[in-house]
Amino acid sequence: MNAVTVRVPAKVNLQLGVGPLRDDGYHDLVNVFHAVSLFDEVTVVPGELSVAVEGASIEGVPATPDNLAGRAARLLAEHLGVEPEVAITIRKEIPVAGGMAGGSADAAAALLACDALWEANLPFATLMELAGTLGSDVPFALLGGTALGLGRGEKLTPLPCSGEFHWVFALADGGLSTPAVYAECDRIRAAHSERVSWPHESPALLAALAEGDAEALGAALANDLQPAALTLRPSLQRTLTAGRDFGALGSLVSGSGPTCAFLAADATHALDLAVALGGVGVARTLVRASGPVPGATLL
Ligand code: C5P
To answer: Which residues does the UniProt record annotate as the domain GHMP kinase N-terminal (predicted)?
Structure first.
């Protein structure tokens, strides 16, 4: 085989319940992932191990084999007992360090693409296991759709989801570091002597997904990392408030931020919302997307 391309979606967290800090430095999560139609494309061809990155906003993405996509290729090669001889090109549309799992998506895409390039045809379960060792969000990028993630977020169960949900994403200038946002969440909790209770999935949110009820979903969106993201980036409060003022059914910081997500009633409402938000200068760029969409897919 000469070249393989995989398309892979971004995610938004519909519920991100963060439990206590574990001994291994991670937090146990109740994480409802939702894959949306913002995609990166990863192309692999035979060659010396290398990573190239293309796209409008790619600042900070390493164009070296240390890129998570390069690490994915090395991990798979090691598992198969072959040399990681692959040149990887990433075409980025997913915001960098934006809380939409762009790096994880590229790793998932590289795994699937190299599996095809090297004609390994590993079982999906094996790819999911390898994905889990690369990062907490990598397995979901392979799976796609809407899913509940427990543990670090890597123990996934697909969730029933009816219809299509329409989103507007407000992309910010610069990223936020995921470890820094988790650390800030721990700091805020300690400062308030908060007893961190075990997170539970929200029955209202699961019912809204199953019924395709956008209004109920908007009311149930929740992210325990949001206060930490707002402390580190106070300007996001204005962005969230503007979305609510312009009639979003729900709004929240996506994952560890700084991207903000707004749920619209339908595609027309999403367009209106994006235009209104664009007029008040609360974001670098506004993009519309819908979900759920499939996970990493061979083109
Ligand atoms: O797994 P991944 O490398 O994507 O996680 C990045 C960082 O996010 C971790 O090093 C940790 O600081 C934080 N994290 C966490 N608990 C999780 C997932 C991630 O504290 N469940």
So the answer is: 67-145
Q: Which atom of ligand 1 is found nearest the CA of 151?
A: 21
Mean pLDDT over residues 116-123, rounded? 98
* Domain carrying residue 207: 165-290
Give the tokens for residue 183. Answer: 């650390």
Q: Is there a single domain that holds both residue 74 and residue 39?
A: yes
Q: Is residue 155 flagged as an active site residue?
A: no
- Interatomic CA distance for residues 67 and 81, integer angstroms: 21
**Ligand 1 atom 2, closest CA:** 135
What CATH number should be reported for the domain holding residue 125? 3.30.230.10
Distances (CA, A) of 81 to 73, 88, 115, 120: 12, 19, 13, 11
Does the pTM exceed 0.90? yes
Tell me, yes or no, if 137 is annotated catalytic. Answer: yes
Q: Residues with beta carbon inside 6 Å of ligand 1?
A: 25-27, 29, 135-137, 152-153, 178-179, 182
* Structure confidence by residue, pLDDT tens digits, 8-62: 999 999 999 999 999 999 999 999 999 999 999 999 999 999 999 999 889 999 9
Residue 24, exposed/middle/buried by CB under 10 A (0-12, 13-18, 19+)? exposed
* Domain match, 56 and 121 both: yes
Catalytic residue among 28, 40, 106, 137: 137
- Convert the pLDDT of each residue in 134-184 to its tens digit: 999 999 999 999 999 999 999 999 999 999 999 999 999 999 999 999 999
Quick one: 85 and 181 in the same domain? Answer: no
Distance 152 CA to ligand 1 centre (A): 7
Domain-located, residue 133: yes
Q: Which atom number of ligand 1 is nearest to the Cα of residue 28? A: 21
> CATH code at 215?
3.30.70.890
In a shared domain, residues 66 and 169:
no
